[in-house]
Amino acid sequence: MSFNTSLSGINAANSDLNVTANNIANVNTTGFKESRAEFADLFSYTTYGLSRNAIGAGVKVSNVAQQFSQGNIDPTGRSLDFAIDGEGFFTVNKNGNTLYTRAGNFQTDNQGYVVTPDGARLQVFAPNAGGAGFDVGRLSDLQLLTTDSPPAQTGMVNLMVTLPGNASPPVTTPFDPADPNSYNASSGGVTVYDSLGVSHVQTSYFVKTANPNEWQVHNYVDGTSVGAPTTLQFSGSGTLVSPASGQITMDPFTPATGAGVLNMTLDMSGSTQYGSTFALRDVRQDGYAAGKLSEISVAEDGVVFARYTNGDDVALGQVALTNFVNPQGLQSQGNNQWGATYASGTPRTGAPDSSDFGQIQAGALESSTVDLTEQLVNMIVAQRNFQANAQMISTQDQATQTVINIR
What we know:
Elements: H1 2-25, E1 35-43, E2 56-66, E3 73-75, E4 82-85, E5 89-94, E6 97-101, E7 107-108, E8 114-115, E9 121-127, E10 134-141, E11 156-163, E12 185-186, E13 190-193, E14 199-208, E15 214-221, E16 224-225, E17 230-234, E18 240-242, E19 247-249, E20 265-267, E21 272-273, E22 279-285, E23 293-298, E24 303-308, E25 313-319, E26 321-323, E27 331-334, E28 337-339, E29 348-350, E30 359-362, E31 364-366, H2 372-404
Parallel strand pairs: 11-20, 11-21
Antiparallel strand pairs: 1-2, 3-31, 4-30, 5-6, 5-9, 5-26, 6-28, 7-8, 9-10, 9-25, 11-22, 12-14, 13-14, 14-15, 15-16, 15-17, 17-18, 19-20, 23-24, 24-25, 26-29, 27-28
């Protein structure tokens, strides 16, 4: 009996060493969660139950529990490195099996899918068909777009100016865009785009009339007039009163590129007539040319954006995080991945930065939770336990030999 008791101690100490060795081996493994050997004592039962004076029968390993604490988040600068700051697991799909991981060192495969190093595809909530929000009831594989971003035709040109209140009508009439003496000021040219993404130049010329607080604006695209002059009327305090909406509808312009007709509106809301100097205070337009994919970025709420050289951002999906009532009940599958079990509870999937789910930190990785100093101390303790139990066997052997040698 005493030999078995000491042998159980040796086995337990050996298991403790194995757990410690595994922790030390994974000290630099991304997203690794350290394990802890947990022990329980043993008692022998008789026919009549456990004796009050029973001596223990040794020890057993009751559980090897992984500790799902938060690891340090280390920046990497790589766009496909993700870290979870808080609760939850990345959801991945490998050959039809749903698995979970804290290791966010993702990469792309030859089809553009975002995968783990062993090929499991990262799961996201797909964008809704209308473009607003995400379908949180359906998971899909995250695939990076490799095509160009299509162009967008300009529909609105925003132009905010300050016209000089002391201006006089030009000395040269009639208006001629080629003659600077026939107008007081110009917008300098705004780059606009047709339906093919080809750029054109829209220019507004401002001519002071003989009437107080009154101007005319002439609009041109690529040197071609797009409508009759429009009268601008300002109040005595310098604010724009006509047109009341501040918007001027230009005539359609047909590009020579074969693109569709360009219909644009000039919005001059906020323009004023002050002082003695012309000032261009704001100029914007809502079109853009075709763009090349420049980078992938991820927001804290897990939305993955494809950013293009033309300034367009396309939401590809929202990273899906999964949490469990009992994470320690998860079954390790290797490759930094876990599978759900009955003990872990039903998986609960949601969006990052909502409920009890953590935030996504892009360009960073969660480091291993192993404290090397602590593990080295554990190794010494387990080694001493092993030696002490081995010494107990040696002592018991000597005692047994002494009894056998009694004459």
